[in-house]
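Chain A, query sequence.
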Amino acid sequence: MNIFTILDLWFPDRLTTNLAQGRCRLAVASVFGAAALGTATLGLGSVGATAAAASLDYFDCATGMTAAGIAQADAIAACAAARYPEDLGACVVDVSDLTGLTAESALIVCGRSRRPLEVANCTIDIHTAFLDSPSTKVLENCGRSLLPARYGTCVIDIVEATEIAVDEALTQCIRAGYRPWRIQPRL
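Chain A, predicted structure.
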């Protein structure tokens, strides 16, 4: 005779059913708890792999920036201070290679940005679409924007939809609260 049989004799209503369900819930919870604990211990084994991957980020950052013309000491300091060093290195290299801007000016702007890849794409897209010569104003405005990808789209769409100059679109899109739909009424 087990405890549930005895309790069923004393309390024939729902007590034993509730206890049995509770026992079942406890068993399920312990299985999931053990699985989570196993996952946590397995996760600790991958810390070395994550650290190795992160070291490549720093390596790529430093080698890319020094190849782009950044002084070794400046590249080391920038990569060490970056939250995502591989993104910082890619931003500097891409901006300097694809727009003709200096790597030093790209490092200043990309190093300040929380989204260096978006800054690079914004700068490159605007240069590719409209400019023949390098423009630090484009780089600086893409770096100042909180959402560089959206800012780049704003500039490109405004210039293509209207007859205004690129400099005017740069100014209008960087202004707080400016929305491109003010050019044409929304229906």
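Confidence is low (pLDDT under 50) at residues 24-46. Residues 13-45 form one domain.
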